[in-house]
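Morning!

This is the sequence you dropped in the shared folder:
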Amino acid sequence: MPSIPRRLKQLDKMLAGLPDDIDPMLVSELDGYLAGIIVCPDLIMPGEWLPLVWGGGDEDSAPVFEDLAQAEKIAGLIMEHYNATIGDLTEGRYAPVFDVDPRHDEVLWEFWIDGFATAMALRPDSWMTIAASSDDDTRAALSGLITLGAIGRRESDLSETEIDELTDLAPDLIVHWVDTLNAWRLRQSTTPPPQRGNFGRVGRNDPCPCGSGKKYKKCCGLN
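The structure's back. Tokens below.
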């Protein structure tokens, strides 16, 4: 992975240190996920999308975190990147976080697009409002990202030549298409903008930040 902010290096290390069976997101996947959350036509609150980053949300699953401090630190770093991404998109300087294969300097955009697709799956109907009613550029941006998702999953019906061309252009196209979707969202007066948020301290009787739906003291707070 090329040079990334210190917070993302720390977050990458902390996510990798979580239990092996929960399959937390990679940082590049998380970056695509957050981009999808932010440019989604509907506002999605952190309480819904945040647990998916570390595989939380299953009421019957074992506690994800070692203690409250670890939970707050990881969630705080995620929210910090969420806020930074909102700022970058608003100011027109969004730069996706892509992994790079050092053997060939190949940009591995597929992890990013997996994260974006996960965000889209949270509100599939709302994304269809873009396909049905928006301008040509915005429809093309959405269609392009969906096409890249199919290529990344090896489910595309395109020819090998077309796939190779899109694969080579994908890193630049992703930037353009995300900017286009964000501009469309900002033009929609009925869609509340995503708010910069903070992850404050959690009390023992508050909902556990792992997303299980239990109180913290009866979930991750047991450790």
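Headline: Residues 160-187 form the longest helix (28 residues).

More detail when I'm at my desk.
O.
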